[in-house]
Amino acid sequence: MEKIAIIGGGNLGSAIARGLVHTKACDPQMIHVTRRRAQLLAPLAGFGVITGSNNLEAVKSAKIVFLAVKPYQMKDLLAEISPAIAGDAVLISLATGIDNKTLLELSGGKNAVFRAMPNTAVAIGQSMTCLASLNATPDQDEKVKALFEQLGTVQFIPEELMAGATVLAACGIAFALRFIRAATQGGIEIGFGSELALKIASQTVKGAAHLLIEGGTHPEAEIDKVTTPRGITISGLNEMEHQGFSSSLIKGLMASYQKIENGSKQQK
């Protein structure tokens, strides 16, 4: 068992720690999570995870170091911890908009660096995580991939697609949840109690996803199976499209993507 340090125990950093514990991928005592207000990490400490605010202590002897801080904090953080990072440790950045070349330079150039974009479902081992690496050996690539495979599905992608992965996977989980919320509200309006409406909507979305993941089919192929001539499903779908359903979703994705692109340009 190798020590894992997570610098930045915010929503995503804490979710990764919970996922590692939940899936039994790592002994809780081998995980060290930090943040400035360490008292907010009490729930993780309750699972047996080591918590605190001392970043240097956290990275000491760690073989995997997660950098789960805001992009604007990365330069100062790496200046602080780089001298204490082991030469064979891998650095995994969760920060949006900072490329691996910059991470390698800021960290001193001795370590393998990875950009990872999981989503918050990592807490229950159901994340979609995209990875890109630099200065890593094939064994290190496999090591990081194997770690994230215990937390969901993993895909290595060209680094230039990481901004898109952030929108589609990380922001995307919020977009999917907003659909479930809207479906729940509609269910209440047609007569269901809120808890039952949420249960039905959530399981329906889960089932739809499994049809595609396990069946390897296209969404339209599955839609065709439940749309009949003059039927109720096609009537509902067409009304949604008339109201801009697909268009608004695509525009939302593009708005998030443009936000990332603009932020990257400002950092440069």
TrEMBL record:
It is found in: Cytoplasm. It catalyses: L-proline + NADP(+) = (S)-1-pyrroline-5-carboxylate + NADPH + 2 H(+); L-proline + NAD(+) = (S)-1-pyrroline-5-carboxylate + NADH + 2 H(+). The keyword Cell wall biogenesis/degradation does not apply. SUPFAM superfamilies: 6-phosphogluconate dehydrogenase C-terminal domain-like, NAD(P)-binding Rossmann-fold domains. Its EC number is 1.5.1.2. NADP(+) binds at residues 7-12, 68-71. GO terms for biological process: L-proline biosynthetic process. One of its GO terms (molecular function) is pyrroline-5-carboxylate reductase activity. Residues 159-260 form the Pyrroline-5-carboxylate reductase dimerisation domain. Catalyzes the reduction of 1-pyrroline-5-carboxylate (PCA) to L-proline. This is Pyrroline-5-carboxylate reductase. The lineage of its organism: Bacteria, Pseudomonadati, Bacteroidota, Bacteroidia, Marinilabiliales. The gene is proC.
